[in-house]
Amino acid sequence: MPYANPHAVRTPYPENLRQWLSIERAAQSRDWLANWSLLNPLPTPLYALPDLARQLGIAQLWVKDEAQRSALGSFKALGAPIALVRQILARWPDQGLSVPGLFSGEYRHLLKDYTVISATDGNHGRALAAAAQSIGCRCVIVLHAQVSLERELAIAAYDAHIVRIRGHYDQSVAEAARLAATYGWQVIADTSYAGYEQIPCDVMQGYGALVAEVLEQSASQPAQPAFSHVLLQGGVGGLAASVASYLWQFHGPDRPRLMVVEPEQADCLYQSAKAGRAAQASGTVDSLMAGLACGATSPLAWRFLQPSIDCFVTLPDALAAGAMRQLASGSARDIPLVAGESGAAGLAGLSLMCKDGARRKVAHLDAHSRVLLINTEGATSPAVYQQLVGETADSVIQRQQQWRQAPGAPG
Ligand SMILES: Cc1ncc(COP(=O)(O)O)c(C=O)c1O
Predict the structure, then answer these.
(1) Which residues is 372 bridged to in the sheet?
(2) How do residues 355-381 score in pLDDT, each as one tens digit?
(3) Is residue 64 annotated as part of the catalytic site, yes or no?
(4) For the sheet containing 161-164, what is the strand order?
(5) What pLDDT does residue 44 have?
(6) Which protein residue has the closest C-alpha to ligand 1 atom 16?
(7) pTM
(8) What is the whole-number distance in angstroms between the Cα of residue 47 and the centre of ligand 1?
(9) Are 3-74+204-405 and 80-187 equal in CATH topology?
């Protein structure tokens, strides 16, 4: 059953959280990201899916499509480059470095021996490797046993040196920290741990760009949120914390109801909610939803999630695969979408919550609900995508283009 969080509050955004994540700093990150040629210059689309909304018995369903953020395939492309740039600016304060100059590789001679390292389940590492390549520093990526070869090659394509370990994501995080301490490398991680918070905070701040876009695209006003509910996929909690903090700061006590969705076997945020503190997952952690297969909550993220997330939901892998197919199929009024295993988890969670009266009640979902989902990734593992959807991502994109050109398609 979903867990209704007794610690969720509806107050103005607290000052102690604003010191870490703020709309002002998110705006600066967004401006900086505009200098990176690997990101598409336009905001990612926000699509209405009216047929799916009707099937689910809600008023409106919207999807922010981060699959279209860049060739890197996920929203993670917003986080790592910001943390890397902030690190470099802080480390060489007297060199007069400019952000556009960094992203265009103007300082590669200065940075050629600077090495950054991170663990990843795929998307963060790919984004870090790509940012390091553009900027001109060295990058080492630590992968755990379950990361597919396909994901490894996608990271190595950006010149990163790959280290493989046995074990899970959390062990790869520890190995990255060990290698960094041994060789004097800089960890640029998307999760926090004791004594390591500022960099994951910078990563989370980068994700704020997508929330700024959604608020503009939906013409949301502080006291009139366009959405009544927002579902957020949970890995270590960074994405959810970033989006929750932005919406909380913007809407104050009128913020939408926020729900976190995780794999059943990698339920660290759900367990944290129950324990009332950052906790570990109760299961095996491995999941088809590779980006969400994390066993340990980011303590920094938890500071934001505990007071802001209204409801925590866990999901079996099979539901994510079903949601991928549902989004890929589209309909007369719903555009077909390429959503990877973790990207589709928001829809899977929503479908589960809409299934019966008891769940709908816990989530306060009804015929008036206006729900926002974030498709956090496209087909970041194309072979897995094809196997699960029964169609290639390219073929879905072709149908997407045909759908747009069909007579009567929404503009
Ligand atoms: C596609 C995708 N969605 C969601 C997440 C969850 O983000 P976080 O680990 O910050 O909670 C990840 C994490 O890697 C991801 O790759």
Answers:
(1) 62, 230
(2) 999 999 999 999 999 999 999 999 999
(3) no
(4) 161-164, 138-143, 115-120, 186-187
(5) 98
(6) 291
(7) 0.97
(8) 21
(9) yes
**What is the CATH code of the structural domain delimited by 3-74+204-405?**
3.40.50.1100
- The strands making up 229-233's β-sheet, listed across from edge to edge, are 3-4, 311-315, 257-263, 229-233, 370-375, 60-65, 46-48
3.40.50.2000, 1.10.472.10, 3.40.50.1100, 3.30.365.10: CATH of 80-187? 3.40.50.1100
Which of the following is catalytic: 64, 65, 121, 170? 121
Choose, from 76, 170, 267, 310, the residue flagged as catalytic.
Answer: 76
Return the closest-CA partner of residue 187 out of 142, 154, 145, 153: 142
Which protein residue's CA is at the shortest distance from atom 2 of ligand 1?
291
Reply yes or no on whether the pLDDT at 118 is more than 90.
yes
44, 123, 262: which to mutate for ligand 1, most atoms within 8 A of CB? 123
Q: What is the pLDDT of residue 1?
A: 81
Helix (H) or strand (E) holding 314: strand 311-315
For ligand 1, the distance from its centroid to the CA atom of residue 364, given in whole angstroms, is 25
Quick check: 73 and 81 in contact, CB under 8 A? no
Residue 332 Cα to ligand 1 middle (Å): 30
Domain coordinates in residue numbering, the chain: 3-74+204-405, 80-187
Catalytic status, residue 121: yes
Mean of the per-residue pLDDT values of the chain = 97
